[in-house]
Amino acid sequence: MTNVLLISEKTLKSFSLINDNVDGKYISVSIQATQDIDLQNLLGQALVDKLCEMVATNSLTEDYKFLLDEYVTPYMTWQVMSTIQVGLNYKMVNSGVIQNDDERKSHLDYKNNQLLIEQYKTYATSYAMKMKDYLDCNAALYPEYNECVNKQHKNDVNTYGIVF
Questions:
Q1: pTM of the predicted model, to two decimals?
Q2: Which of 33, 36, 47, 61 is deepest in the core (most CB within 10 A)?
């Protein structure tokens, strides 16, 4: 399947603190990483694949649309806000890694940037816990949630310190 993003750049910008002038390539890379790593660790590969398939074919049922709108989108919004920080502040060029510098703007130092990343992760973790609670209570609506893919069950993956 082609790379299907579960939230769009437009959705992310409308529900987050990301400015409209942020280049879409930074956003799409961060969305893809969040979806492929963080979201898949929370929901399992089977459920993420099912959501991607339904989004790609425009065949979301009411239950899956509810999951996407009420839980996945808020979680991914804050997790992308955390993920995108490094890409926006530091660039890899031929001469090495550089920090963006503009005479009219001042940038966060590394320590404050890390604090910002952690704050956004805190928000994402809160939404992740709500999503897991919802899915645990409504697992019958989402049979893929408990499905094992590639000999890995969703509960086998690292949840980044989130205790359920």
A1: 0.82
A2: 47
